[in-house]
Design brief:
The complex is a heterodimer. Chain A is mostly helical. Chain A has 13 helices and 2 strands, in the order αββαααααααααααα. The chains are: A mainly alpha, B alpha+beta. Chains A and B meet through helix 9 and helix 10 of A and strand 6 and helix 2 of B.
Chain lengths: 314, 359
């Protein structure tokens, strides 16, 4: 008696479930159908490979044989027995540390200058943005190599003043700096965003401040900078991630070696060497995941501290 | 000691376009002066030139006798309240008030009492730690005024400070600003396009139109003796009625005109040649329906009646097709479609010549 009652409740529940499902499908099915291309892309090309690489990072894998599970050996080796890992970390961190603030300062400087309501603004905007379109390309990296070579344009220019410049690119003291300069030169996209941010600040704010007796400089750091912090924050996060991921220029300038003496061995370049020069896919995957964690930590840190210095006006 | 402002032949040009055409104005120390005029007439531009936010293209601007044309805004001893409030959104109310004093290099010990005094005058002490976005419109307006007060300026400038507030708050702030003026005694210049604000707040009203000064005077002088048709139409609410009329005869003491089919005798001479056409102006509140109150003006067909409780507005048409507005005290029983007779007191009639000047 009770058993039968339970069963009938189960059946009723099952029927109810089915009808909930089919109603859900009726209401939302079309939407999900439209999502299918994206879903395929996301699962097939982003999430899937990411998870597989996470798995591979715990294996030895040379593309030819089956991956062999090695536990955390790859990660342990990284921190205990791999001087190139440490070297590439140093290079990438130096690059991020110098290129991001320099680039942001430069972008802000140009944006403020352009925001002074000058004639021909659209032209200047386009001209200054151009390097950002070209900068990441192989051609510009090649050009950069010519510019900073021993007999390059930079040294030809310096020679006019009687200065004999070194070969910037093949001197380990300077080679990273040529890459930092190259990255700062591509200040266009943060500049455009800064410019948009500056446009958002109402003119009467500056009028009130000038009636309050504030000089241009005081207006800049008491009004402009604080009101621009959301944009500065956005640019800083995006540019930091970009800088951690930088690859092409270092690859071209050093011919893929990260030389001289590992001075341009970006983390991504080292990762590339491990993966596609030595076919240590497991180790390369582990390197990739360490980078992911580092970028996540940086971004998380930025968001956590943002409430102390970013002013949101909502 | 309050401060005078003198404008001589002030001109403003934007490139080729001249928007202020030689304004002469003498502002008496301690007065509350209101610039009023229709949109685009140059009120804000004139105010911003006094403030130093716009360069002056021509003429002289003196404050207390000292030429100010080239003096930067901050050194003119002026504070301005903006229509948008222009509060610094990232600073607390306290910081907003203190900003000018900090900029001037005052020490905290000097700043605090001044901020607190301004905050007490404006009753914003409980709000001092808030950010502007946590304030209502009226509170923001108070903070904006407070920011002007703490600097202890010689002159206060207001550019339509109440236009973002609702009607009730506007009346309340109007009273408060007037009270503030009495307490502080500074010279204040106030821009508005609302002639009610101008009438209620001003010691002196400056009526601007198209970059010219039309008339300067006390509110009731402008109301009673407008110098031209523009001022007559702009000052006073509801607007003055204008009827087409013809001057028939003038002698030393009186004039005869025909208006809306009626012959009317005015007890004064009109400065125009007989036979010329003139505008006959009469305010709605100076028209009555009873014979006891004046001369018969015209029969009106009543098109619309508005009962305001305290007053009754009648919109009518004369036999020759001109419209006339009548404002009667109290609640009057007038039916739409009926015919009434308008009477006017000839001493309260205004005549305007063909060029708009009062005659
Ligand atoms: N930057 C400018 N360039 C060119 N013309 C301007 C500029 N600013 C104002 N004007 C013109 O000057 C005239 C006066 O403008 P102003 O802002 O002083 O008017 P206003 O009386 O304050 O009007 P409102 O009541 O609408 O605020 C207007 O015709 C306007 O088009
Ligand atoms: Mg204006």
């Amino acid at each position: 008696m009770t058993a039968r009652a339970d069963a009938s409740i189960d059946i009723a529940a099952g029927r109810a479930n089915r009808s909930v499902l089919s109603r859900f499908w009726e209401r939302n099915g079309a939407g999900y159908m439209f999502l299918v291309p994206w879903l395929i892309g996301f699962f097939g090309l982003t999430l899937g490979p990411a998870l597989i690489s996470l798995y591979l990072s715990f294996t030895n894998f040379d593309l030819l044989r089956e991956p062999v599970w090695v536990g955390t050996a790859n990660y342990v080796r990284m921190v205990t027995a791999d001087p190139k890992f440490a070297a590439s970390m140093r290079v990438t961190f130096s690059f991020v540390l110098f290129s991001v603030p320099l680039k942001l300062c430069f972008a802000l400087l140009v944006a403020v200058a352009l925001n002074r309501g000058m004639r021909g603004l659209p032209l200047y905007r386009a001209v200054f943005y151009l390097p950002s379109l070209l900068g990441a390309s192989v051609a510009i990296a090649v050009l950069w190599r010519q510019l900073f070579a021993a007999d390059g344009l930079v040294n030809m220019f310096l020679a006019n003043f009687g200065i004999v410049g070194p070969s910037w690119i093949s001197n380990p003291n300077y080679s990273l700096w040529t890459l930092i300069v190259l990255s700062v030169w591509q200040f266009g996209s943060p500049m455009i965003i800064f410019l948009a941010g500056l446009r958002q600040i109402p003119a009467d704010m500056y009028e009130a401040a000038s009636l309050d007796g504030a000089s241009r400089w005081r207006q800049f750091y008491k009004i402009t900078l604080p009101l621009l912090t959301p944009v500065i924050f956005f640019n800083a996060v995006v540019q930091t991630i970009e800088a951690f991921k930088a690859f092409t220029p270092a690859f071209i300038i050093s011919g893929g070696t990260g030389g001289p003496i590992n001075s341009t061995l970006f983390y991504t370049l080292y990762l590339y060497q491990e993966a596609f020069a030595y076919f240590r896919m497991g180790y390369a995957s582990a390197l990739a995941w360490v980078l992911v964690v580092i970028v996540a930590l940086f971004t998380g840190f930025a968001f956590l501290t943002s409430k102390f210095w970013v002013h949101y006006d909502d | 000691m309050a401060t005078s402002v003198t404008l001589t032949k002030i001109v403003k040009r934007y490139g080729e376009v001249e928007v202020i055409h030689g304004v002469d104005l003498e502002i008496v120390p301690g007065q509350f002066v209101v610039f009023v005029g229709p949109s685009g007439c140059g009120k804000s531009t004139l105010l911003r030139m006094i403030a130093g936010l716009e360069p002056i293209s021509g003429g002289d601007m003196l404050i207390d006798g000292e030429r100010m044309n080239q003096v930067p805004a901050a050194r003119r001893g002026i504070a301005m309240v903006f229509q948008s409030y222009a509060l610094y959104p990232h600073m607390s109310v306290y910081k907003n008030l203190a900003f000018g004093l900090e900029t001037a290099g005052l020490k905290d010990a000097e700043i605090r009492p001044r901020v607190m005094r301004a905050a007490e005058i404006l009753r914003i002490v409980p709000l001092l730690e808030r950010k502007p976005k946590q304030l209502s419109g009226g509170q923001r307006q108070r903070v904006a005024i407070g920011r002007a007060i703490v600097r202890e300026p010689r002159i206060f400038l207001f550019d339509e400070p109440l236009s973002n507030l609702d009607a009730e708050l506007r009346v309340q702030m109007r009273v408060e600003i007037a009270k503030l003026h009495r307490e502080l005694g500074n010279t204040m210049i106030y821009v508005t396009h609302d002639q009610v604000e101008a009438m209620t707040m001003a010691d002196t009203i400056v009526v601007l139109n198209g970059g010219h000064v039309e008339q300067v005077g006390a509110p009731l002088d402008l109301y009673n003796a407008p110098r031209n048709k523009f001022v007559a139409g702009f000052i006073g609410s509801p607007k003055m009625n204008f009827l087409e009329a013809r001057l028939e005869a003038v002698d030393g003491v009186g004039s005869a005109l025909s208006v809306a089919g009626t012959r009317m005798i005015l007890p004064r001479a009109v400065r125009a040649t007989p036979g010329s056409s003139v505008q006959f102006g009469v305010r709605p509140e100076h028209i009555s329906l009873s014979e006891a109150d004046g001369l018969r003006l015209a029969d009106l067909r009543v098109d619309l009646v508005e009962q305001l409780g305290g007053a009754t507005m009648i919109y009518g048409t004369t036999a020759d097709g001109q419209t006339l507005t009548v404002s009667l005290d109290g609640q009057q029983d007038v039916a739409r479609g009926s015919t009434v007779t308008a009477h006017v007191d000839p001493r309260r009639v205004h005549i305007f010549l063909e060029d708009g000047a009062a005659g």
